[in-house]
Write a structure and sequence with these properties.
Length: about 100
């Protein structure tokens, strides 16, 4: 089981990203627009830099929904390989069967 503080920090980051997503998208579009004058683009860059760092989507860490484990994460199932194996062996994940030969 992962540290509760790490899981909570990641939840806070997800909330911050959701709050600032629209603002960041507008600023990024302004920065990338080659038709605008360089001064306006530079001001948009400064505004983007003044936003909180945790508002960036790249700061979010994919974590297992069951255990909070940050590594060996399957995006499709939103869980780690260990949790997937345990729940798969118990028959709680549809479509996954323990193989034997």
């Amino acid at each position: 089981m992962a540290k509760t503080s790490a899981v909570e920090k990641n939840k806070r980051r997800r909330k911050t990203v959701a709050q600032h997503a629209a603002k960041r998208a507008v600023l990024k579009a302004t920065i990338m627009n080659q038709d605008l004058p360089i001064e306006d683009r530079f001001k948009a860059t400064i505004k983007l830099a003044s936003l909180p760092r945790d508002g960036s989507k790249t700061r979010i860490r994919n974590r297992c929904e069951v255990t909070g484990r940050p590594r060996a994460f399957y995006r499709k199932l939103k869980m780690s390989r260990i949790a997937l194996r345990e729940l798969g062996n118990l028959g709680k994940v549809p479509g996954i069967v323990k193989s034997s030969w």
